[in-house]
Amino acid sequence: MVNLSINGRHYSVDAEPDTPLLFVLRDTLGLTGTKYGCGIAQCGACTVHLDGQATRSCQVPLDSVGTQAITTIEAIEQDAVGRKVVEAWVALQVPQCGYCQSGQVMAATALLKQTPHPSDGDIAEAMTNLCRCGTYNAIAAAVRQAAA
Predict the structure, then answer these.
(1) What is the pTM of this model?
(2) Residues in domain 2Fe-2S ferredoxin-type (predicted)?
(3) Which residues contact 126 (CB under 8 A, 6 or more apart)?
């Protein structure tokens, strides 16, 4: 059994130590807001926070999580910065298909918690998640609005 702290709640999970955190979140615990995209940590659809750091959960083995606090999209609005990001996403109607957006919101929240007033360069450097619909301009605009 592995003990995890997810969204402020404690869970005991019976899974193989090398199971990717993404699969534990989605398949074992039913937290399906975190998406499976590519499985090789390139697209960012699986982004969660580990102790506040944006992390691609598809490549995080369960046994490497340890005592780190995990935050998923399901709880992001409980954080003041996360709430501002979601409000900006909605106000600017960022999503098209929406598949990547939970990972985008998680990446943007981590950026703004680390750099409350990012430059355009900071946004470009931090927002590396892929969007098949190409909403990158809207994503950057929403990050700027949430930072205001």
Answers:
(1) 0.96
(2) 1-76
(3) 54, 107, 108, 110, 111, 115, 118
